[in-house]
Amino acid sequence: MTALLAVAERAARQAGQLIRDHAGGAAISDTKANSKDLLTRIDSLCEHRIRETVTAAFPTHTFLGEEMVAPGREASAAALDEILAQSHDTYLWIVDPIDGTSNFVHGMPLCMPSVAVAYRGAVIIGVIYDPHRDELFTAQQGHGATLNGVPITVGTQADLGEAIVAMGSPPAPTSLAMSLRALPILMPQVRTIRMLGSAALMLAWVANGRLTAYWEYDLSCWDLAAGVLLIQEAGGTVTDLTGRPYTLRTRKLCASNGPIHAAVLDSLAAAEVV
Predict the structure, then answer these.
(1) Which of 112, 129, 155, 240 can pair with 209 through a Cys bridge, CB separation 3.0 to 4.6 Å?
(2) H helices present in 97-172, as ranges
(3) 254/174 same-domain check
(4) DSSP code of 149?
(5) Which long-range contacts (CB under 8 A, 24 or more apart) does 12-15 make?
(6) How many domains, in total, are found in the chain?
(7) How many CB atoms lie within 10 A of CB 18?
(8) For 165-187, what is each residue's pLDDT tens digit?
(9) What CATH code is carried by the domain that includes residue 64?
(10) Residues 146, 37: one domain?
(11) How far lies 5's CA from each of 1, 31, 116, 143, in Å?
(12) What is the pLDDT of residues 198-230, one digit of tens each?
């Protein structure tokens, strides 16, 4: 586990350096699911750098990166199913090379790599590196979560009215419709809502208490795996939108400090987010 974590940290830092070096200067090379879902050459470069680092240390491990998979919900779900069937008894690296590509393209310092390691379907290592603040979030199953080596815990808010809740502004039309449906129900009940454009960042910030909760209607495993472990190891709660425990196949996510979790789910249910 220690060796896995060290390699994950090194790979995330290397990708983070590339992000920092090119922030705001990377042209859009393509779009994926639609015109809002952006891709740059730096996404592929970061994924290649991470994969090189992982393969050099662990040549027999399996690798699943976002840029390996065709765009769209069906493609990402199918890719995960296929690779889980093939890698049950091997370590699986799950990587988002740049989470927050639209932020990256526009020079906003809210984009970062997310690196996770799973074994037999359970995430055991999670690393998110924010290169703009030099903040390294790490988690190891059963050993807690840290920020730059210092243990972190989720926030202590026990009332929804004290909560800062994050949510996405997703490019897919169905997901966007669900987000808009939730806003008028959830927003009046919480202290404020934030949309930061990076699932990795919002998950990491729930883990260290900057945010109280984060929910999103449809994400892929590479968006979630590392951040979910961070929150779990920091004492928080992660489920799908019906309250079922998180698995790698979970796409509709609610993550929180724990005490307000049921209230967030109730609000989403009242908004008929299904």
Answers:
(1) 155
(2) 101-105
(3) yes
(4) T
(5) 12/50, 12/113, 12/114, 12/115, 12/127, 12/128, 12/129, 12/136, 13/129, 13/131, 13/136, 14/49, 14/50, 14/53, 15/46, 15/47, 15/49, 15/50, 15/97, 15/98, 15/113, 15/129
(6) 2
(7) 21
(8) 999 988 888 999 999 999 999 99
(9) 3.30.540.10
(10) yes
(11) 6, 32, 9, 12
(12) 999 999 999 999 999 999 999 999 999 999 999
Instruction: Please identify, among 130, 151, 172, the residue that sits at the C-terminal boundary of a domain.
Output: 151
| Region of poorest pLDDT, from 26-35, 50-59, 88-97 | 26-35
Residue 35 has pLDDT above 50, yes or no: no
Cα–Cα distance, 253 to 150 (Å, whole number): 27
Tell me the β-bridge partners of 39: 30
Give the predicted TM-score (pTM) of the model.
0.93
C-alpha span between 29 and 20 (Å, rounded): 18
Beta-strand pair 62-65/91-99 = parallel
Q: Of 151, 186, 208, which residue constitutes the final position of a domain?
A: 151
Comparing C-alpha atoms, which of 11, 45, 41 is closest to residue 26? 41
Give which of 46, 160, 136, 158 is closest to 99, Cα–Cα.
46
- Other beta carbons within 10 Å of 125: 28
pLDDT tens digits, 140-172: 999 999 999 999 999 999 999 999 999 998 888
Closest among 229, 212, 17, 250 to 112, alpha carbons compared: 17
